[in-house]
Amino acid sequence: PSGRLYNYRKWVAFALLSALFLFPFVKFHGEQLVLLNFLERKFVFFGLIFPPQDFYLFALAMLIFIVFIVSFTVVLGRLWCGWLCPQTIFMEMVFRRIEYWIEGNANKQRKLDASPWNAEKVFKKTLKHLIFLVISFAIANTFLAYIIGSDVLIKIAIEPIRFHISGFSSICFFTFIFYLVFAYVREIVCTVICPYGRLQGVLLDSQSLVVAYDV
User: What separation, in Å, do the N-terminal and C-terminal C-alpha atoms of the chain show?
Assistant: First the structure.
């Protein structure tokens, strides 16, 4: 895809990905910039610490967020899905671009899948899935940095594995989950698993901005 709006989408995606991978490793007022440690019930947002007794603020924020999504969906359609959803950003701006770079466009990919297993096919498939695994590993580490804290994650990385069996197992598990989602499940997440995608039919009306065929 190309065009002015697609270029805007790329810059938005780049900004969001940068924030996602940087926030757990940036310190502010001695605390991690964003921390969602459910295990120790410690939540930090941009230097502000929220103990469990402040959890009602989180519930209120989630309600406001849901109302916000419903409101702009009625007007602007699936803006969230195309521009802000993590699944879309990783799938379209990271994994699929790598796939196109290695295997070519959709027609070339179909021809490659239908071709017999030769040296070229083995090389391209192996390279693609190795890169997918590396990126999934990076996402899994970032995800855990939000949950257990970047300091604990660094300890898991530099200390012997025997001291952090559960942490290392968690990294491997989430690496496999993210790899499975972006390498195989893909759009099924949007059409079957995602509750927002399932609710699209009741959130749109005849005046909503949608991309559709002109009958």
Answer: 23
